[in-house]
Amino acid sequence: MSRWPIAKLGQVADFINGDRGKNYPSESDFVDKGIPFINAGHLVNGAIDFSRMNYISESHFSILNSGKTQKNDILYCLRGSLGKTAIVRADEAAAIASSLVIIRPSTECNVGYLYHFLSSPLGNVELSKFDNGSSQPNLSATSVKNYCIPLPPLPEQKRIAAILDKADVIRRKRQQAV
Fold first, then answer.
1. Residue 114 above 90 pLDDT?
2. What is the pTM of this model?
């Protein structure tokens, strides 16, 4: 078996921070229904939990300069619960809080493979290299761009992701049974 090349995460994905300027939503901007405003607490077991979601109006969403999600984006926690990760599965509009970063894989990196890497012990090793927080764990998006990731050919990435997805389903079913 040949050795897979190692790439910096910033070489195989784009990074989009949430809007941190004057347009950043405050609690008074939240509405009962509207566009989801996702924070770290909404990332649960690799998915976005909408049961206690905060929402912003469409007009507030339209003035945000960044942090707007797309289907197959990966949301990654930079503050507090470092490394919490989820994949955006829906096509609907949503925005992220400043504690998260959007990681948008390029065509040479499979979203499932990247998700499993970030959630793996190897991903946690990369995280621990760059955690610059003291009492409040903290990462910068620039640091995450420097994570080193093994990059097998795309068909192999897809195969690995499919195997790990099946293992996750079995693990979750086992947890539910207990």
1. yes
2. 0.92
Cβ atoms within 10 Å, residue 78: 23
Lookup: tokens for 147 = 């994570």
Query: CA 85 to CA 49: how far, in whole Å?
Result: 12
More confident residue, 178 or 65: 65
b vs e for 16-46, b when ≥16 Cβ sit within 10 Å of the residue's Cβ? bbbbeeeebbeeeeeeeebbbbbbbbbbeeb
* Separation of CA 63 from chain center: 23
CB 151 within 8 A of CB 6: yes
SS3 163: helix
Question: What is the structure's pLDDT at 169?
Answer: 84
Q: Please report which confidence band the pLDDT of residue 168 belongs to, taking 50, 70 and 90 as the band edges.
A: confident
DSSP category for residue 146: T
Q: What gap in Å lies between CA 172 and CA 21, rounded to an integer?
A: 39
Cα(first)–Cα(last) distance of the chain, in Å? Answer: 39
Is the pLDDT reported for residue 85 higher than 70?
A: yes
Helix (H) or strand (E) holding 145: helix 141-145
For 98, the token pair is 């400043």
Rounded CA separation 54/150 (Å): 36
